[in-house]
């Protein structure tokens, strides 16, 4: 079926992608492969025709038809998706690939998806060596893969060289170092020259080679090779090595239609065998007949000079004369056709000596003419590169621009008013380090991977841009160029920088949030622990009346009273009944904070303000802004901090440590203490002005012994609470025990009562709560511990000694337990950290109390 113009246009468009070094396949919506380039076919192990018969699921085992259709629907347009997966080749082997997928911009009735990929594994050895070569005991095969930098040697070659029979692959550098001592100097130079010519011309080559084996004995061999190239460059050399006697035992049959002449008829280049002394043609292949229009008989009856234009004859004869001493020559000339026309060719001349010493010139003529179809093909290639958003710039060996795509021209033309072609790239991008073509080429040949370079420049608009620059050698005909690929990664770099800054900010906020969360947890625990205020006492009703009076104002409140009376519960009630009740109440225990950290806790700090300040932190004043700040144990605050607290209360402003910024705060302050602040003022341990600022509305919290009528109410409440918590059923309380409890003085106040009830619930055997055992334990404690309470005639002891005795008694009662339910901190109604700090200060060890 003839191809339609649309099919022809599509095929030419797809052929343009053969310029790329990556594999490319086109997939339709049903997952059918509609085409591919040569690189894709080679990586997958198929020929192009077979590849076009497959579906995408046959090369990508990770996709099904349903998965492909879903992927097709989600593929951005315009845009591309990153590809990083595994493909399976014709041999059924998985190999890793990386690339991208997008819709092809080519206008076709049936839309296609473009998959561009490259293998991320070491290059596989392709099956270019004939099976006959591998089986022939007198012929050894070899291969050099320039892409991977690996040299392969067949078993015969390794045996002749005396190398390890177990190893068949060598890195190029190691191979060269290993083979050099075994090759004669003259043949080594010739081999190096042959190697360079094969990279430039991609033509078959052959030469004599003298090699020394492991014993140092030299033998003559005949080396033959071929080049494999894509549209850009030669990427592999392969061939055979045979002993000289084997080579001579099978001379090329001149003038006979043998195997060699038959195989040459399949060559795409014209091949002539010329008798060197007479310059007459003794053999011409089928392509030579097609190129000139003469039959084989006509060609083999005339002199080679008859096929060459007169102007090129001197150069041809000179090359033929030089062959005996220089066995490889190259010429550019035109051959004469039978119809009178000419065909421009690239002629490569090789010397061949037969067994009887006869010298032949083997002439390989490659047609280098360009027709209209080639021009269209090049236009498609150029148009394809112009579709790329990346810059593509080709430099010659001197670093001057010879070609650039539309994206590069559009950007670089803004940097100069001169014509870009012929300029040095470094004139336009002054600080860009452009390596030499030879250096990049050598790195590629030796498989040294070079990372992309980041180049920063300022565009004409004053914006700083970042380019990711990559250098690659490319081949076009017999010339080499340095291809510079530039991708604008400004947005990516900016996003990365913003992401880094955002992460830094998130880390700071996380640290701040964790700090605030700890405070909030403590507040929630305090609110839940306090519970409702239960009382039937008329005296305590007066205290509640005071709360009702002051709650609706913003006046500062000072709550005094013994330890364990529930001062924080009163502060919470004042906050709850105020207009600030919907906001936070932040609590600070002034005795629990080390002196060097109390300022930071109250006012906050900036990052780096002191050692350990890894992030900015808000203080309690800022956290309580709009709400209430409860300062418990205010009498424990150091004098220098009292002055700073007074300033904050008077002016409503604070400053974080390490900052000059003044922050306004709207905070209602409630303070509490069990100390005699007036006595502390006389002793010089508390500021008088701060006392008056705090004591605007004083409330004295009653001890439990002054509100005994509340004891039965509280016992019933806490019994229900702990019974429910422990899964017990308590329906009765022994009245005699309850009466004895009412008569008890409770030096630990409500906290001591709670501790007693909890212990009784734990030890209860039935539905009746027996408080007798707990009460008797309390009385034994009172009798055994002297000096905890004082009568009116007792001499007063220092306050710290009084604290020490209380702490010792609490630890003894709790058997050394400090924190948690039933601990000394709970009994004394103080923060656990505060109690441990006091114990360290007073030299009290928990180990002395049976814990």
Secondary structure elements and pairings:
Layout: H1 5-15, E1 23-27, E2 33-36, H2 38-44, H3 48-51, H4 56-59, H5 65-74, E3 81-88, E4 94-103, E5 113-119, H6 131-135, E6 140-145, E7 150-153, H7 155-161, E8 169-171, H8 172-179, H9 185-201, E9 205-212, E10 218-229, E11 234-243, H10 244-249, H11 259-264, E12 270-275, E13 280-284, H12 286-292, H13 296-299, H14 313-322, E14 328-336, E15 342-353, E16 359-367, H15 372-386, E17 391-395, E18 401-404, H16 406-412, H17 425-428, H18 437-445, E19 453-458, E20 464-476, E21 479-488, H19 490-530, H20 538-551, E22 557-560, H21 567-576, E23 585-589, H22 598-603, E24 604-605, E25 617-618, H23 620-623, E26 628-632, H24 639-651, E27 653-654, E28 663-664, E29 668-673, H25 677-682, H26 688-694, E30 697-700, H27 711-726, E31 732-733, H28 735-743, H29 749-763, E32 768-769, H30 772-784, H31 799-813, H32 824-828, H33 832-842
Parallel strand pairs: 22-29, 22-30, 23-26, 26-29, 31-32
Antiparallel strand pairs: 1-2, 1-5, 3-4, 4-5, 6-7, 6-11, 7-8, 9-10, 10-11, 12-13, 12-16, 14-15, 15-16, 17-18, 17-21, 19-20, 20-21, 24-25, 27-28
Helix pairs in contact: 20-21, 27-29
Written account of the structure:
The chain folds into 6 domains: 5-119, PAS domain (Beta-Lactamase, 2-Layer Sandwich), CATH 3.30.450.20; 131-249, 2-Layer Sandwich (Beta-Lactamase), CATH 3.30.450.20; 259-367, Beta-Lactamase (2-Layer Sandwich), CATH 3.30.450; 384-488, Beta-Lactamase (2-Layer Sandwich); 505-700, Rossmann fold (3-Layer(aba) Sandwich), CATH 3.40.50; 705-849, Helicase, Ruva Protein, domain 3 (Orthogonal Bundle). The chain is elongated, with a radius of gyration of 48 Å. Residues 122-137, 246-259, 524-531 and 783-794 have low confidence and may be disordered. The strands form 8 sheets. A 6-stranded antiparallel sheet has the order 8-7-6-11-10-9. The chain has a 5-stranded antiparallel sheet with strand order 2-1-5-4-3. A 5-stranded antiparallel sheet has the order 13-12-16-15-14. Helix 27 (711-726) crosses helix 29 (749-763). 38% of the residues lie in helices and 23% in strands. The chain has 851 residues and is of the alpha+beta class. This is Sigma 54-interacting transcriptional regulator. GO terms for molecular function: ATP binding; sequence-specific DNA binding. InterPro entries: AAA+_ATPase, AAA_lid_NorR, Homeodomain-like_sf, HTH_Fis, P-loop_NTPase, PAS, PAS-like_dom_sf, PAS_4. Residues 492-530 form a coiled coil.
């Amino acid at each position: 079926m003839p191809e339609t113009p649309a099919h022809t246009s599509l095929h030419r468009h797809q052929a343009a992608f053969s310029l790329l070094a990556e594999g490319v396949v086109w997939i339709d919506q049903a997952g059918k492969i509609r085409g591919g380039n040569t690189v894709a076919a080679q990586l997958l192990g198929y020929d192009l025709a077979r590849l076009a018969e497959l579906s995408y699921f046959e090369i990508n085992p990770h996709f099904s038809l349903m998965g492909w259709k879903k992927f097709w629907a989600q593929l951005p347009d315009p845009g591309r998706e990153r590809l990083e997966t595994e493909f399976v080749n014709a041999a059924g082997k998985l190999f890793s690939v990386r690339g991208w997928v997008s819709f092809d911009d080519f206008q076709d009735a049936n839309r296609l998806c473009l998959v561009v990929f490259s293998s991320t594994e070491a290059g596989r050895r392709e099956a270019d060596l004939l099976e006959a070569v591998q089986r022939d005991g007198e012929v050894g095969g070899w291969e050099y893969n320039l892409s991977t930098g690996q040299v392969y040697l067949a078993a015969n070659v390794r045996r002749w060289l005396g190398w390890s029979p177990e190893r068949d692959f060598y890195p190029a550098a190691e191979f060269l170092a290993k083979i050099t001592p075994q090759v004669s100097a003259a043949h080594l130079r010739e081999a190096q020259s042959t190697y360079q010519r094969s990279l430039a011309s991609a033509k078959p080559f052959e030469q004599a080679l003298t090699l020394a084996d492991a014993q140092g004995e030299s033998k003559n061999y005949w080396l033959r090779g071929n080049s494999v190239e894509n549209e850009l460059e030669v990427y592999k050399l392969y061939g055979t090595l045979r002993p000289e006697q084997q080579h001579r035992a099978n001379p090329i049959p001149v003038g006979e239609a043998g195997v060699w002449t038959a195989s040459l008829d399949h060559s795409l280049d014209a091949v002539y065998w010329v008798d060197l002394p007479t310059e007459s043609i003794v053999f011409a292949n089928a392509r030579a007949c097609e190129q000139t229009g003469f039959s084989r008989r006509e060609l083999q009856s005339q002199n080679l000079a008859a096929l060459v234009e007169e102007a090129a004859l001197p150069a041809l004869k000179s090359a033929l004369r030089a062959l005996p001493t220089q066995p490889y020559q190259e010429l550019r000339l035109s051959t004469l056709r039978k119809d009178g026309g000419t065909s421009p060719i690239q002629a490569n001349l090789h010397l061949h000596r037969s067994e009887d010493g006869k010298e032949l010139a083997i002439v390989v003529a490659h047609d280098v003419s360009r027709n209209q179809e080639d021009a269209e093909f090049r236009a498609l290639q150029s148009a394809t590169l112009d579709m790329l958003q990346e810059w593509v710039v080709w430099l010659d060996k001197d670093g001057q621009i010879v070609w650039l795509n539309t994206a590069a021209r559009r950007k670089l033309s803004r940097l100069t008013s001169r014509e870009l072609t012929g300029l040095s790239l470094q004139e336009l991008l002054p600080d860009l380090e452009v390596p030499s073509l030879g250096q990049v080429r050598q790195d590629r040949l030796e498989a040294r991977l070079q990372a992309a370079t980041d180049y920063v420049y300022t565009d004409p608009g004053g914006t700083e841009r970042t380019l990711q620059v990559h250098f690659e050698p490319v081949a076009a005909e017999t010339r080499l160029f340095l291809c510079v690929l530039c991708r604008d990664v400004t947005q990516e770099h900016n996003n990365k920088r913003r992401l880094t800054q955002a992460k830094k900010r998130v880390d700071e906020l996380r640290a701040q949030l964790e700090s605030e969360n700890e405070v909030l947890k403590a507040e929630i625990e305090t609110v839940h622990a306090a519970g409702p205020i239960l009382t039937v006492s008329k005296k305590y009703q007066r205290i509640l009346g005071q709360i009702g009076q002051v709650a609706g104002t913003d006046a500062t409140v000072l709550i005094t009273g013994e330890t364990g009376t529930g001062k924080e519960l009163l502060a919470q009630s004042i906050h709850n009944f105020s207009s600030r009740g919907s906001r936070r109440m932040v609590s600070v225990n002034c005795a629990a904070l080390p002196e060097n950290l109390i300022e930071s806790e109250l006012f906050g700090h900036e990052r780096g303000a002191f050692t350990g300040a890894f992030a900015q932190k808000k203080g309690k004043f800022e956290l309580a802004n709009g709400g209430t700040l409860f300062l418990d144990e205010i009498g424990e605050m150091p004098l220098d901090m009292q002055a700073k607290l007074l300033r904050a209360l008077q002016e409503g402003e604070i400053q974080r440590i390490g900052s000059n910024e003044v922050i306004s705060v709207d905070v209602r302050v409630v303070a509490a203490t069990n100390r005699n602040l007036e006595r502390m003022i006389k002793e010089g341990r508390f500021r008088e002005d701060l006392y008056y600022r705090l004591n605007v509305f004083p409330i004295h919290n009653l001890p439990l012994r002054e509100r005994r009528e509340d004891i039965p109410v509280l016992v019933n409440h806490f019994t229900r609470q702990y019974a429910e918590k422990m899964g017990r059923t308590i329906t009765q309380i022994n009245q005699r025990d309850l009466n004895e409890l009412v008569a008890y003085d409770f030096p630990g106040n409500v906290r001591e009562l709670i501790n007693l009830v909890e212990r009784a619930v734990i030890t209860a055997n039935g539905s009746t709560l027996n408080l007798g055992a707990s009460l008797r334990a309390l009385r034994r404690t009172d009798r055994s511990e002297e000096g905890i309470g004082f009568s009116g005639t007792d001499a007063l002891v220092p306050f710290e000694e009084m604290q020490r005795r209380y702490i010792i008694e609490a630890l003894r009662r709790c058997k050394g337990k400090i924190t948690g339910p039933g601990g000394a901190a709970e009994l004394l109604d103080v923060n656990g950290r505060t109690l441990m700090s006091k114990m360290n200060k007073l030299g009290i060890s928990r180990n002395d109390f049976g814990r």
